Amino acid sequence: MGRPYSLDLRERVVTSAAATSRRQAAARFGVGKATAIRWMAALATTGSVAARPQGRARRSKLDPHEAFLRALIDEQDDITLAEMRARLRDEHGLRVGVGTLWAFLDARDLTYKKRRPTPASRTART
């Protein structure tokens, strides 16, 4: 995917287009004619030629079930991902992978690292 033109270039094209014509400014700075025309139109309507954010917002199919998942964790803080998947499947009919569930919980800082049961050390914490 291409990157947007820099704000500096956009402003120079618009300044030049205001002094001459849009097509001449486009040719001078090496951008498309339609691009210069759109930038001038954006300047007239919004007062800015800044690029809009690219990409789309990341969404998860678990977003509507966040309250349910938080309630599961509050109810039983050492619940496993497999148990959460089973409850989602049984109570909401939603099938998700372990990776999807973990990524969703990790993004919301709801993960809990369990320690392996090891004998206590006499000299330091393990």
Descriptive overview:
- The protein has 126 residues and is an all-alpha fold.
- It folds into 2 domains: 40 residues; 71 residues.
- The protein has 6 helices and no strands.
- The protein is elongated.
- The two termini are 47 Å apart.
Structure summarized in a few sentences:
The protein has 6 helices and no strands. With 126 residues, the chain is mostly helical.
Q: Helix share of residues?
A: 40-55%
Q: What is the H/E order?
A: HHHHHH
* Count of domains: 2
Helix count equals: 6
Low-confidence stretches: none
Mean pLDDT: 89
> How many β-strands, per DSSP?
0
Radius of gyration, in Å, reads 27 Å
Structural class: mainly alpha
CA-CA gap between termini: 47 Å
Q: How large a portion of the residues is in β-strands, by DSSP E? A: under 5%
Q: Based on the structure, what is the oligomeric state of the protein chains?
A: single chain
Largest sheet properties: none
Shape: elongated
Fill in the keyword field for this structure.
126 residues, mainly alpha, 2 domains, elongated
List the helices and strands and how they pair.
Layout: H1 7-19, H2 22-29, H3 33-46, H4 66-75, H5 81-92, H6 98-107
Helix pairs in contact: 1-2, 1-3, 2-3
